[in-house]
Design brief:
360 residues, alpha/beta, five-stranded parallel sheet, 13 helices, 10 strands, 15% strand, globular, binds fructose -6-phosphate, EC 2.6.1.16, aminotransferase, Glutamine--fructose-6-phosphate aminotransferase [isomerizing], repeat
Length: 360
């Protein structure tokens, strides 16, 4: 039941603090230890998924590569053939699938197993096809997701990948006890922070949807871990509000995409980490100079730096940038939701899309 919400999607967006708590509380220590062991002994790691699950894979790739120095690649499941000859015994494949039934991901799992790789599934559905065919399974505990657009299954996938990266970090000696504890503390704070973010931003998002509803295009720009976050934000807007939305690494925007930007063109910036703040400030200025409608998701500590340049500013908590995407994606989900509703579409049943895709 929708429990009083007009759509499952809105209910599921609001359930995220609870879904994240359940996922953290439901961590299977033994299975995580097994997977950490596997990662420590892996030559190479591929993370595969489709759609939103692929975006979670890109975040995982970012964490594994930067925090652990592991040779990791995120790959769209249906493009697995590129890697078939490059995968061997001693490699690990992490297959992310909310439903556990997406045929593209299942076919890729079979092909990589055939090559001798070990497979770890991350799924929300117990005993679904992909977990059944994998060597190890880490479950998200988001509860059933009815809305076609993935929301709470995405944020809980990020939780599982982050916990995995942190545990592997300790085991590999790449993270000190202090760093590990600080990051775990931040992760444990996410449900509470997210509750506040939803309460604080929902009205502002609704107001922004009145602007977005008459636009034909939008860019989502970020750097570093903000790139997959932008990709997921753009996918949500595209699939339920039917607005053409494209994500780019912000640095790449001046190598082509900026040609389209004119007065009022919405450009959504994800600003997350200290390392990229100055470069992003430059990118926001470039867009502002072309009279773009600049929308920024910004940590509180940088709001002053950006305020003059942004048409709309969302002030978000200061939190380690590796954890921040779990919070930042939520107002973007709400933006897609309210824009779809403002345009008169049913966000639970976007045209042409199925919740589980069972044809290649
Ligand atoms: C987007 C969305 C789809 C799914 C994709 C993979 O909101 O829901 O892009 O993420 O079809 O589905 P799973 O995770 O079930 O393999």
């Amino acid at each position: 039941s929708k429990e009083g919400y007009p759509h499952f999607m809105l209910k599921e967006i609001h359930e995220q603090p609870f879904a994240i708590n359940s996922t953290l509380a439901g961590i299977n220590e033994k299975e995580f230890d097994n997977v950490v062991n596997l990662l420590l002994n892996s030559r190479k790691i591929l993370i595969i998924g489709a759609g939103t699950s692929y975006h979670a894979g890109l975040v995982g790739d970012y964490l594994f590569t930067t925090m652990l120095g592991l040779d990791t690649h995120a790959l769209i499941s249906s493009e697995y053939k590129k890697y078939v000859n490059a995968v061997n015994e001693g490699d690990t494949v992490i297959a992310i699938s909310q439903s556990g039934e997406t045929i593209d991901t299942l076919v890729a799992v079979r092909a990589f197993k055939e090559r001798g790789a070990k497979v770890v599934a991350i799924s929300n559905v117990i005993d679904s096809a992909i977990p059944r065919e994998s060597n190890y399974v880490l479950y998200t505990r988001a509860g059933p997701e009815i809305g076609v657009a993935a929301t709470k299954t995405f944020t809980t996938q990020l939780v599982v990948l982050t916990v995995l990266a942190l545990r592997a970090g300790i085991a590999m000696g790449r993270l000190s006890q202090d760093e590990y504890r600080n990051l775990m503390d931040s992760l444990n704070k996410v449900p509470g922070l997210l509750q506040n973010v939803i309460t604080k931003t929902e009205g502002k998002v609704k107001a922004l949807s009145e602007y977005m509803k008459s636009r034909n295009n939008a860019y989502y720009l970020g750097r570093g871990i903000g790139v997959p976050l932008s990709m997921e934000g753009a996918l949500k807007l595209k699939e339920i509000a039917y607005i053409h939305a494209e994500a780019y690494p912000a640095g790449e925007s001046k190598h082509g995409p900026i040609a389209l930007v004119e007065e009022g063109y919405p450009v959504v910036f994800s600003i997350l980490d200290d390392d990229n703040v100055d470069a992003l400030l430059g990118n926001v200025m470039e867009m502002k100079a072309r009279d773009a409608y600049t929308i920024g998701f910004v940590p509180e500590k940088y709001v002053g730096k950006f305020r003059e340049l942004l048409s709309v500013t969302f002030e978000l908590p200061n939190i380690d940038y590796r954890i921040a995407p779990i919070i930042y994606i939520v107002p973007m989900q709400l933006l897609a939701y309210y824009t779809a509703v403002a345009r008169g579409y049913d966000p639970d049943k976007p045209r042409n899309l199925a919740k589980t895709v069972t044809v290649e």
